[in-house]
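User: Assemble these into one structure.

Assistant: Restating your components, then the assembled model:
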Amino acid sequence: MEKQAAVSAADLVFKALADAGRRRLLDRLRVKGGRTLNELCEGMSMSRQAVTKHLDQLVEAGLVEIRRVGRERLHYLNPVPIHDLARRWIRPFEDARLDALRDLKSQLEK
Amino acid sequence: MTTKTKTETFVYATYIRTTPEKLWEALTNGDFSEKYWMGFRVELEPRVGGRIRILPPKGSVGRSDHGGDILAWEKHKRLSYTWMKEKHETDPARDGLSRVTYELTPAGDHVKLVLIHENLSSNDVVDDPNTFRGINNGWPAVLSGLKSLLETGKAIDFVLPADSQNC
């Protein structure tokens, strides 16, 4: 039961990250947090409705936190699920030899 | 010289399978904090206006008390305090101290912990994911360790880079 819950929480994060539009929203919140829906709609090539839907999915996955300040609903990036994901799914697979290979690739492609 | 800097707020949230009482204990007790907060020890006077000390591990060089004054004390619900009073009060680049707030909300068999760090200046923020330096990088690791300790009883080992004095 515990395992099941852990899996579905990670699933939500992976699904939320699997869309370029949602990743763009996260990137924008990383650069500057505390934005309103209106601010987030600016510069996005999608409808307000689509942005709202993407934000709902990001909130459900725990990647975006909403704080109410006065009348405003401010959106913040929550990096904790990504940190957990990195700890579970990236760091164990990291390898110094792969870093060397990447450095070699970037040197050769200069 | 006073440079008015634009302040930033960071918000971190995590669900921990525990009770508000146990989580509160872990956040406010030094024996607990040493296990998930990279050896830092929390000591506090449990009241508004009391002092909170977040002391670096013994033998660490160049690190100061990370705590300050307690601004809000609602047992098992909400704790707010000023951050790094000792170090930042004398920093001319700062407009006042930053504030850290923990909010605990029961959610089924979990507790949602939200950590808000407000009034941060650009000096506090490091845009490098490969380090624990800088406030924006340190908190996820601390919360991750806290969650792991409360849910499994085991702390995570951290390997700190040698120059991580500002952590």
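Residues 2-17 of chain A form the longest helix (16 residues).
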